[in-house]
Design brief:
With 205 residues, the chain is an alpha+beta fold. It has 2 domains: 72 residues, Glutaredoxin (3-Layer(aba) Sandwich); 110 residues, Glutathione S-transferase Yfyf (Class Pi), Chain A, domain 2 (Up-down Bundle). The protein is 53% helix and 7% strand. The protein is built from 8 helices and 4 strands, in the order E-H-E-H-E-E-H-H-H-H-H-H. Helix 1 links the parallel strand 1 and strand 2. Helix 4 runs antiparallel to helix 5. The two termini are 28 Å apart.
Length: 205
């Protein structure tokens, strides 16, 4: 298998963490999705990362599809529960965390446009999504040790990738750490795991 991604992508990071937790060997190729000849277009017609090329040359794309596939490749460290309600609860957490990142990415992209082309109303709308998402994550977590159930799951991985990306990019100047001490606590615990430490996003030197 080969993973096409970016070291700065929170969605590619989620897949990389799942690969590490599942102890699945996978070649990784960093790609520039903006380059006209980017190889990711051959793997994902939408031109987004991550994309996963399987051994039979089949391509999988969207991180949620990829991590579900990987969780079923190996029985080691199951990250998505089998029972329907538990599985849906974990995937719901993932959708929430991914949605917060989506809003943050749109805010960041808008900030890169020329000042006279930026829409404050658009940014405010995305900031509302981001703020509501973080509030929901904090409320759902409460004082529990894990996002769902009694152990580490994909819900925790998605949440950790979301919070890590917000720390890294700070879209709209968001300061989640000052508002949500339970998310700070949870993120600190996740960062103790080797899979999180090894995938911290870093700008190229």
């Amino acid at each position: 298998m080969k993973l096409y991604g970016s070291p700065l992508s929170p969605f590619a990071r989620k897949v990389r963490i799942v690969l590490a937790e599942k102890k699945i060997e996978c070649e990784t190729e960093w790609v520039d999705v903006m380059a006209p000849d980017t190889p990711v277009n051959q793997r994902n017609p939408l031109g987004k990362v991550p994309a996963l090329a399987l051994d039979d040359n089949t391509s999988l794309y969207d991180s949620r599809v990829i991590v579900e596939f990987l969780d079923n490749v190996s029985p080691i460290s199951r990250l998505i529960p089998d029972e329907n309600r538990d599985r849906i609860a974990v995937r719901r957490w993932e959708a929430l965390a991914d949605g917060v990142v989506d809003a943050g990415i749109l805010i960041r992209y808008e900030s890169l446009r020329e000042k006279n082309e930026q829409s404050s109303a658009w940014v405010a709308r995305q900031m509302g999504k981001l703020a509501r998402g973080l509030a929901a994550m904090s409320a759902e977590l409460g004082d529990k040790p894990w996002c769902h159930g009694h152990g580490y799951t994909l819900a925790d991985i998605a949440t950790g990738c979301c919070l890590g990306w917000l720390d890294f990019r700070k879209p709209g100047g968001v300061e989640w750490r000052s508002k949500y001490p339970n998310l700070v606590r949870h993120f600190a615990k996740l960062m103790e795991r080797p899979s999180f430490q090894e995938t911290v996003p870093k700008l190229p030197a």
